Amino acid sequence: MTEQKPLLEARRVFKGFFGNPVLKGVDIALHPGRVHALLGENGAGKSTLINLLSGALQPDSGTISVDGKPVGRFSPAGARAAGIAVVQQELSLTADLSIAENIGLGAFPRRFGLIDYRALHRGVRDVCDMVGLTEPLDMPVADLALGRRQMVEIAKALFRKPRVLILDEPTSSLSAHEAGILARLIGTLRDRGTALLYISHRLNEVQALCAHVTVLKDGGVTADQSLAGIDGEGLVRLMVGRETGDLFPPRPAANPGATRISVENFSAGLVRDIGFSARAGEIVGIGGLVGQGQEDLLLGLYGAIPAKASKAEVSGKGALPAHVGEANAAGIVYVPADRKHEGLVLPHSIASNLILPSLGRLARGGFRDRGAEAGLIADLARRLTIKGDVARAVQALSGGNQQKVALAKWLPLDPSVLLLNDPTRGVDIETKREIYLMLRAFAAEGRLVILASSDTPELVHLCDRVVVLREGRVAASLSGAAISEEAIVGAAMGINTQGAAA
Amino acid sequence: MSAVSSSGWLYGAIQRRRNRSLGGLYLVVAAFLILYAVLFPGILSVGGFSKFTQNWFPLALVTMAQALLMLNGGITLAIGPLVSLGAVIAATTMGTALGVPGGILAVAFVGLAIGAVTGAIVAHLRLPAIIVTLAGSFIITGVALILLPRPGGFIPDWLSITLAGHTPVAFLLLVVIVLAWKAFLATPLGLGIYAAGDNPIGAFRSGVPVEQVKIVAFALSSLLAALAGLFVAAQTGSGDPVIGTPFTLNSIAAAVLGGVGFLGGKGTMRGAICGSLLLSVMINVMFFLGFPPVAQYIAQGLIIVGAVAVPELLAKGRARR
Fold this sequence. Notes:
Chain A: One of its GO terms (molecular function) is ATP binding. The complex is a heterodimer of chains A (about 500) and B (about 325). Chain A is built from 18 helices and 22 strands. In chain A, helix 4 crosses helix 5 (about 145-160). Chain A folds into three domains: about 10-240, P-loop containing nucleotide triphosphate hydrolases (Rossmann fold), CATH 3.40.50; about 245-330 and about 415-500, 3-Layer(aba) Sandwich (Rossmann fold); about 345-415, no CATH class. In chain A, helix 16 (about 430-445) links the parallel strand 19 and strand 20 (about 450). Chain A has helices at about 45-55, 75-80, 100-105, 115-130, 145-160, 175-190, 205-210, 230-240, 295-300, 325-330, 340-345, 350-355, 360, 370-385, 400-410, 430-445, 455-460, 485-490, and strands spanning about 10-15, 20-30, 35-40, 60-65, 70, 85, 110, 115, 165-170, 195-200, 210-215, 220-225, 260-270, 270-280, 285, 305-310, 310-315, 330-335, 415-420, 450, 465-470, 475-480. In chain A, the strands form five sheets. Chain A has a six-stranded mixed β-sheet, sandwiched between helices. Chain A has a six-stranded mixed β-sheet with strand order 18-19-20-15-21-22, sandwiched between helices. Chain A has a four-stranded antiparallel β-sheet with strand order 2-1-4-5, covered by helices on one side. Helices cover about 35% and strands about 25% of the residues of chain A. Chain B has helices at about 1-5, 10-20, 25-40, 45-70, 80-95, 100-125, 130-145, 155-165, 170-185, 190-200, 200-205, 210-235, 245-255, 270-290, 295-320. Chains A and B meet through helix 2, strand 8 and helix 4 of A and helix 2, helix 10 and helix 11 of B.
């Protein structure tokens, strides 16, 4: 069966953004009548590969072939003409338009140049029956729950009668019932000869549905093989393991100080009813798949989103901070993941970004004290090895150096708790090393560092303890020798390995 | 399912649902119209109705022009200058060899061309529409003042009488334009205006030619504004290079009153047209009630803020419960 010619194939494709390579020579071949799994951690390049395969992006080099013939410039319209449809993870729906209009969008049946609403109705009715959408077709998508919108997205892809169907995390918002419908549908399409590419973090689905797997890691393919005879732990093994070299500073013997944070039945945003505690001098990692409540845990502790707990002790106070000002006063600072939007004022200089949180403290009689500011800036630049002119705009710096500025600006407040949200995302290796050293030094000074990270090696090799969140709850709490990539990835994906609930 | 066999069931159902969400607005407009008829029963005669719709007509056109772009996720500050330019071109061409048909074509061509160029700049250079149209508004005003430095020009009397006399020609024209819009919205390109406004990336990935849609939206919007200018010239019997100025902000106000959102894809054209009718009636009612002009401005502002804030507060109240 796999001897057949691939329907859609990528060969040696490279793609980078702003000089940052994301895909480094990736091969993948989708065959008719086969469900192909694409696995990889966050940031491995899966979304970029899908965008190349569906014409939303162009490769820097390498070829995309349909039916063995290389396509030149590929556009979404061209991909659709070639029979390629994608169920996007970020929905492509228009909220105010009806279910039917959304499904037909970009592929409307026409009559005299107008949309043929009767033909549309027939076609849409068929695909809605296939996915079990019983809502009135004239209903605006805005009135549907997220899971039902996902089913509309799937129906929209089916409406295009695809020969190649790419499904990017289609089940993340579906109920068990809906996921079952989708699984049966995938079987039907496969038997009809459709080539399917299935991206999911749910390894049990991958096992149940897929015959072949490609694993991406850091923009390269690390496995491309049949799934026959591979179990859940085998899949986890395929996904982990990488040379770490001397990227991480040595971990000192555990010597934690007094408890800085302790909460029970803590809920905030996606986080439901968890217990969590951390002590001075620790680096505590928060792991898990994207959007399992990591950010909400940090924001809740920071007082930036509403949070509640049956018992709380935060930085010596017997309650959660009610707002950000209170958290700052208690020595808690937060460095956001989206440094470009939330962490920095991009067009302003390094110097003005560095002193922003200290302006009030340094002012004398309501006016800024330029002398004191200059001293502080020089001191911070030296401590953070920020090289060159501090009058440069922050946006001219590399991602890594921007991150250093976003971190450094809090140091004059002498924080006792640092909440960091994915501080090394999009940061080069050299700067990563510097940031790791810095975080280790903070811990050695008796500060508490809580680090949410999408980078598993960082959790394993940098952190003293790791808490893995899954669907807003603690899936595993690991420390010491129990911290391993296998344990973290397994817990994040809901596969039981050793070390859970330590 | 019987619904499948009946002709165009889906289309009708979608339209009915859009009307239902505007029920509140329809009621408010109806209430104001009744109040107006009570205060000024003349509206019920053919002449009164004609005059009333002639006052409303240019505002309706510029509101459509504005809503077209707001639905597409943009905005335009060049409406007023385009109205002026349309009036000036009409008044400077109709007395020449081009005559009335040539003058109308000239106005339409200039409107379409300016819009297409503006749209191409916004779409291909990815510049914010508000800045590009702000720059455009200065340039267009300049051109209008060069063509006709002070009010004047020539509009044949018969044209003024036809468009702005004692017959409801303006109303009939509006009906034609609305029908044309409905036909446009039933094309894939027309519906693309909504899709590209609400979720441009999703629309692009679905195969909607997002940039082409934007250029068409700008071209049609400018065409409507320029035609509004032609009508104003016929109404006043001459061209005036700054006559359109108040239309820029009034078009935004009317679209917002009609429930068109600022973030794209939210709202309906029928809502925007109702919004322009509401604004037009409110201005007339305040005039007949003897409000001083200053009070009219303030009341207008308060009503617009209220129109935006009330649904928001209602939604918040519902969410809390």
